[in-house]
Amino acid sequence: MKVKSKKVDLAEGDLTPMIDMVFQLIAFFMVLINFAQTESNDRVKLPSSQLVKPPEVPLEFPIILHVAQDGEIILGGDDYTAETLRVGLQKELAVIKAEGKTVGDANVVIRAHKDTSAGDVQEVIRVAQEQQLENFALRVKEDNS
C-alpha cells in the first residue's frame, strides 16, 4: 500500500484589516486624550493661590482668553487688543450658535498673567459682557506651600 504524502499549505491571513483597525484605534484614542497643555500659553504665568479649587464639572463650551503681561489678549492663537476682542468673541459665539446652543451656555475662562493689571482684566470682562456673555472663571495656580 502506497502512502501519499500531502503537502501542507500554510494558510496566511490577510493582515490589512487588523492594521486598519489598529490605526483606527490609535486615531480614536488621540481624539479622546485630554491635552492639558491646550489651555496654556507660554506668555501667561498664572498667579498662585491657596484658596483655589478645581471646577466641579468640566465646562461644556469654554472660551479661553489669555491675557499677557502687556495686556494683549490671545484667543484661539490670534492676538487681540481690548478694542478688537469683540471680533474674536463674535467668531466663537457663531460656532456655539451653529451647534444649537445659546450665548448663556458659553463659559469665558480668563487666564491672566500674574503681573497683568486688574484694569486689563476688567476691560476683558467688560468687552465679553457687551457680547452678552455672563459666565466667567479666572484661572490660577495652586499654591501648596
Describe the structure.
By secondary structure, the chain is α/β, with parallel strands linked by helices. It has one domain. Helix content is 30%, strand content 19%. It has three helices and seven strands. α3 links the parallel β5 and β6. The mean pLDDT is 81.
Layout: helices, strands, pairs:
Elements: H1 16-32, E1 48-49, E2 61-67, E3 73-75, E4 78-80, H2 85-98, E5 106-112, H3 118-130, E6 136-138, E7 141-142
Parallel strand pairs: 1-7, 2-5, 5-6
Antiparallel strand pairs: 2-3, 3-4
Entry summary:
It is built from 3 helices and 7 strands, in the order αββββαβαββ. It has 145 residues and is α/β, with parallel strands linked by helices. The protein has one domain.
What's the total number of strands? 7
**Biggest sheet, open or closed, and with what strands and sense?**
5 strands, mixed
**pLDDT under 50 segments (min length 5)?**
none
Portion in strands? 15-25%
Count of DSSP-assigned helices: 3
- Gross morphology: elongated
Mean pLDDT: 81
Measured between the Cα atoms of the first and last residue, the distance is 91 Å
Instruction: Give helix and strand order, one letter per element, not per position.
Output: HEEEEHEHEE
Query: Cα-atom Rg, whole angstroms?
Result: 26 Å
Question: Which percent range fits the helix content?
Answer: 25-40%
Strand line-up across the major sheet: 4-3-2-5-6
Helix/strand-derived category reads: alpha/beta
Number of domains: 1
